[in-house]
Amino acid sequence: MNSIEKLIAKDLLSIKAVFFRPDEPFTWASGIKSPVYCDNRLTLTAPAVRTDVENSLAETIKREYPEAEVLMGTSTAGIAHAAITAHILDLPMGYVRSGAKDHGRGNQIEGKLEKGQKVVVVEDLISTGGSVIEVVNVLREAGAEVLGIVSIFTYGMKKGIERLAEANVKNVSLTNFDAIAEIAAEEKYIKPEDVARLIAFRNNPSDESWIGAK
């Protein structure tokens, strides 16, 4: 676990942006039952944590994608983070809608984007990777060169990792599921024995045997 992973994990836990319910799991829109729910929107209402997140996103982009010319946020959770980070880096930004507007100019990409521009996508979290890959594809179809993705948190699910690899797109997350689980146990947000249950979920979400495990 590097220093940024640890810092952001501690930050998310401190503002209760990460919820743990291994005995009464959350149900995602996909139907997956999860012992963890991460709400990174709460970082926007916590100034100290927000500063850590945006500075870390900026540092990550400078390190991993030094050629970046434009930041594009995912709609809607990535928009604010893209805007603040772009301000820190003095870069233009825009965002990609989940679908084209049915009025006005019918845009799906909002903001100025020239063909050939080098773009970094800003996302709040990645689980199975489907929605962020759709954003990458929209940008590529518009002629952008997508350097990769930066995200605040990733579950590190096999399906998500495989999808990103198939789409030939790099993702760098500030923190991850394993770091969150480790810090949560250290700081007594969860019981030490719950860590194995969380990792079992991450490794195979379709196997729900972790729900009743003790």
- Uncertain regions: pLDDT < 50 for 5+ in a row? none
User: Helicity range of the residues?
Assistant: 25-40%
For the biggest β-sheet, the strand order reads 7-6-5-8-9-10
Instruction: Determine the number of helices (DSSP H or I, runs of at least 4 residues).
Output: 7
Please describe the topology of this protein.
Blueprint: H1 3-14, E1 18-20, E2 26-27, E3 33-34, E4 36-38, H2 47-64, E5 70-74, H3 79-89, E6 93-96, E7 109-110, E8 118-126, H4 130-141, E9 145-154, H5 158-166, E10 171-176, H6 177-186, H7 194-203
Helix pairs in contact: 1-2, 1-6, 2-3, 6-7
Task: Walk me through this protein's architecture.
The chain is an alpha/beta fold and 214 residues long. 38% of the residues lie in helices and 21% in strands. It contains seven helices and ten strands. The protein has a six-stranded mixed β-sheet. Strand 5, helix 3 (79-89) and strand 6 form a beta-alpha-beta unit. Helix 2 packs across helix 3 and helix 6 packs antiparallel against helix 7 (194-203). The radius of gyration is 17 Å and the shape is globular. The protein starts with a helix and ends in an 11-residue tail after the last helix. The relative contact order is 0.17. The mean pLDDT is 93.
Quick overview of this protein structure:
The chain is α/β, with parallel strands linked by helices and 214 residues long. The protein contains seven helices and ten strands.
